[in-house]
């Protein structure tokens, strides 16, 4: 590895160490010169600090490599590495669990009670930030959100000790989220995109699904693993923590976050269908969100925590047959089919009625 040396101007060095106050200038000129010397000193100090920091990183890199070489030279090196791998692998397998509904296996070491404790902290922070903008329970927006929740919650599969509480924030932001423990926050801006209870059910079903799958706990578990990997890579190989963090973000963290979002879409779609909401409203919702994204100029998907709306539309289209079957097998299946058939026949009925009237 080449050590990049920072060039320090001799003039700056002189300004840093040998500057004296002039005596033949006006006070304004003196002030200007003092400011120039001060800026030169600050620039010099920053560059010298950067040089020292790079030198320190280089020395740490050399010491880490020497430590690894000494460890590798031990006659028991292979057995020690094998033992560490066996213990780590056993710990990883022991803490595997299956995600509800999607049946995906994942690593998770965070208990639900700890997740709920962190959720309470997040709730307090959210209330501190948006508490003054929360609409009253008698508002039409709050009643609409509560009505949709009343149908979704019984089909969520979450434990009965969840303390559900809805909050509608009077803000144009197009967002909604459900904190672990049952605290629901809906921004008024997303209601305009939802365009009715079916669209809102797609939004809330997705957010509740994050709690069903305990995605917050999974992210914390993965975060601890990735942090340990970062420090090991930095210590033994000498790669800067910032670079290793960027690689892990692009290779693991962001793809994992997008996978969780897709999983929440799937779980939420089946949940809304079982709750007697039309799952095809999810297609219309993300179609509208796609138009919003085009107007805002969203970043490429590979650097985003969420999949693009177009990607979501493609996946939801594949899941719709399963969601339709879930809707038909639910308690409201017959009523829903009758209502859809009635709506399809309404134009013909109206035309026939008008002809008879003539």
From TrEMBL:
The keyword Transport does not apply. The keyword Nucleotide-binding does not apply. CDD domains: M48C_Oma1_like. GO terms for cellular component: mitochondrial inner membrane. Residues 142-319 form the Peptidase M48 domain. Keywords: Hydrolase, Metal-binding, Metalloprotease, Protease, Zinc. Transmembrane segments: none annotated. It comes from the Eukaryota. Its cofactor is Zn(2+). Binds 1 zinc ion per subunit. One of its GO terms (biological process) is mitochondrial protein processing. InterPro entries: Mito/Outer_Membr_Metalloprot, Peptidase_M48. Pfam families: Peptidase_M48 (PF01435). One of its GO terms (molecular function) is metalloendopeptidase activity. Signal peptide: none annotated. Belongs to the peptidase M48 family. PANTHER family: METALLOENDOPEPTIDASE OMA1 (PTHR22726), METALLOENDOPEPTIDASE OMA1, MITOCHONDRIAL (PTHR22726:SF1). This is Peptidase M48 domain-containing protein.
């Amino acid at each position: 590895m080449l050590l990049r040396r920072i060039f320090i101007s001799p003039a700056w060095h002189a300004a840093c160490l040998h500057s004296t106050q002039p005596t033949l200038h006006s006070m304004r000129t003196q002030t200007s010169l003092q400011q120039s010397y001060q800026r030169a000193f600050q620039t010099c100090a920053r560059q010298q600090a950067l040089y020292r920091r790079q030198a320190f990183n280089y020395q740490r890199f050399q010491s880490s490599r020497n430590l690894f070489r000494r460890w590798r030279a031990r006659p028991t090196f292979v057995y020690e590495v094998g033992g560490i791998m066996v213990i780590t692998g056993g710990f990883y397998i022991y803490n595997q669990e299956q995600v509800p509904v999607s049946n995906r296996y994942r690593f998770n070491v965070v208990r639900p009670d700890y997740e709920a404790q962190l959720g309470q902290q997040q709730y307090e922070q959210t209330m501190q930030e948006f508490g003054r903008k929360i609409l009253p329970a008698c508002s039409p927006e709050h009643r609409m959100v509560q009505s949709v929740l009343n149908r979704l919650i019984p089909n969520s599969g979450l434990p009965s000790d969840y303390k559900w509480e809805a909050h509608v924030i009077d803000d144009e932001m197009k967002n909604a989220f459900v904190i672990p423990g049952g605290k629901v926050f809906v921004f008024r801006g997303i209601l305009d995109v939802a365009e009715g209870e079916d669209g809102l059910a797609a939004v809330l079903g997705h957010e509740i699904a994050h709690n069903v799958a305990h995605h917050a706990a999974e992210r914390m578990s993965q975060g601890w693993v990735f942090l340990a990997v970062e420090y090991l890579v930095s210590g033994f190989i000498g790669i800067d923590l910032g670079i290793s963090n960027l690689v892990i973000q692009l290779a693991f963290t962001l793809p994992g976050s997008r996978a969780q979002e897709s999983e929440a879409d799937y779980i939420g779609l089946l949940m809304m269908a079982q709750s007697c909401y039309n799952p095809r409203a999810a297609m219309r919702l993300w179609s509208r969100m796609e138009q919003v994204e085009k107007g805002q100029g969203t970043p490429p998907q590979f650097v985003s925590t969420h999949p693009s709306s177009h990607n979501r539309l493609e996946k939801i289209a594949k899941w719709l047959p399963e969601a339709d079957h879930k809707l038909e097998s639910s308690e409201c299946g017959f009523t829903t089919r009758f209502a859809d058939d009635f709506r399809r026949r309404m134009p013909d009925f109206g035309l026939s009625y008008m002809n008879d009237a003539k």
